[in-house]
Amino acid sequence: MNTKIDFLYLSQDDVVKAGVTDMHHCIDTMEEMFGLLGQGDYLMGDVNHNSHGIEIVPPLTSPFPNMPVAGPDRRFMAMPAYIGGRFNMAGCKWYGSNHENLKKGLPRSILMVTLNDPDTGAPKAFMSGNLISSMRTGAVPGVGVRYLANPDSEIVAVVGCGVINRACLAAIKDACPGLKRVQIYDLFPAAAQNLVDYVNRTFPDMETAICDSIESAVKDADIVTVVTSGAAKPFIDDKWLKSGVLLSLPAEMRVPKDFMLSCRKVIDNKAMHQLWKEFQNCEGDFHENVGIISSYMIQYIDEGLMTWDDVTNIGDIIAGKAPGRTSHDESILFCMGGMPVSDVAWGTEVYNKALEMGIGTKLNLWDEPYKL
After folding, report:
1. Which range of residues forms the domain containing residue 285?
2. pTM across the whole model
3. pLDDT reported for residue 107
4. pLDDT at 290
5. Is position 69 within any domain?
6. Whether residues 160 and 144 fall in one domain
7. Nearest CA to 335 among 249, 233, 236, 247?
8. Is the pLDDT of residue 190 over 70?
9. Is 360 found in the same domain as 312?
């Protein structure tokens, strides 16, 4: 009986060589993944199989000098999942996050992805996870654009110019190649200029404009993508938006209550967001604890102003169980909370490509398990 277990270690350079930055392929993979969600062929944490993950939340203070304490974007998180279909893979994304990392020249979050055999649990890969995570986060709005944006869209607004929104813009442009203009806003002018430079290099057919307010950035935009971090909680008044807009929201923001209640609401996974109601029992502000706009859906449902039936899973649209965009004038809010099935699906694609190309370092777990 062969009990030897080897697994593949993939560094950041390895995953780049294996195609982790291929946005079009990533969008295709996320669309396939959402189709499997629509069919129910997936598992995530908790008894309802839909948990975002388990988070270590540092205390405000600690008598122990080395214990992490609360700060902007400071947390540790494990996000396990299984995705079926041709992927048939289990895995987990683990990361630590601290806004202070930026002062050290490090990204805010440092991530690793583990892939495991779904039958034995044996490790198959241990992978650098930052690019896997940022690419799948950006690709999901691309899926949304395929099904929810008006096909004649020409203007996209970008609010927040960090690495995630750069990936979102790349996906949006891939899904809607007819886009002609990007209107950009960031609290920090240098960040806005960096995005302009990226657009000029990557999409020379697109006109760019740096705006002095969120209002001017979203004016006349067909698609709006908002990704900010830390204490920033952007507000967008629907009076600033054109009819038929697609709001793509992988991060926290606020809109007027009337707009939230009247617009079409599409979400990545209702069951996952429903679990976040538990944050109502936690210390601090509920909306801040959840950190994405679905917290307002939960609040309005509790107040009897809407129901979960008013919210559509994107997976149901892809699986043909619900319609996509129904009219040119339909304003749509697409809310995303981030799911570990996305990391496992894209990680599996990168891992399989690495195997095909002979990339990575094979490591041995054991030749045979040690028996005490």
Report:
1. 140-338
2. 0.93
3. 93
4. 62
5. yes
6. yes
7. 249
8. yes
9. no
Segment 193-202 mean pLDDT = 97
Token pair for residue 266? 């599409």
Return all residues near 284 (Cβ < 8 A) that are at least 6 apart.
none
Q: Per-residue pLDDT tens for 359-372? A: 999 999 999 999 99
DSSP conformational letter for 268: S
Both tokens of 37, joined, read: 């969600």
Tokens of 77: 């998180």
Question: Which phi and psi (to 5°) does residue 221 adopt?
Answer: -75, 140
Residue 135 reports pLDDT greater than 90 = yes
Tokens of 294: 């679905």
**Domain co-membership, 64 together with 178:** no
Give strand ranges (E) for the chain: 5-10, 42-44, 54-56, 75-83, 89-97, 109-116, 123-128, 155-159, 181-185, 207-210, 223-226, 246-249, 264-267, 311-313, 332-335, 361-366
Integer Rg of the chain from CA = 21
Residue 371, domain member (yes or no): no
Percent of the chain predicted with pLDDT > 90: 85
Are residues 105 and 167 both part of a single domain?
no
Answer yes or no: do 231 and 165 share one domain.
yes
List residues bridging with 332 in a β-sheet. 246, 264
Are residues 281 and 292 both part of a single domain?
A: yes
Residue 25, Cβ density class (10 Å: 0-12 exposed, 13-18 middle, ≥19 buried): middle
Q: How many helices (H) and strands (E) does the chain have?
A: 12, 16
Which among 369, 367, 343, 336 is positioned nearest to 42, based on CA atoms?
343
Mean pLDDT of the chain: 94
| pLDDT tens by residue, 97-123 | 999 999 999 999 999 999 999 999 999
Distance separating alpha carbons of residues 312 and 308, to the nearest angstrom? 8
Other Cβ atoms closer than 10 A to 176: 21
Residue 351 CA to residue 7 CA, distance in Å, equals 11
Looking at residue 283, what DSSP letter applies?
S
Beta bridge partner(s), residue 109: 97
Sign of CA dihedral 28, 29, 33, 36: positive
Q: Are 172 and 300 members of one domain?
A: yes
d(CA 139, CA 118): 25
Rounded Cα distance between 10 and 139, Å, is 21
Evaluate if residue 332 carries a pLDDT over 90: yes
Spatial contact of 43 and 155, defined as CB atoms under 8 Å apart: no
Residue 286: what pLDDT?
Answer: 62
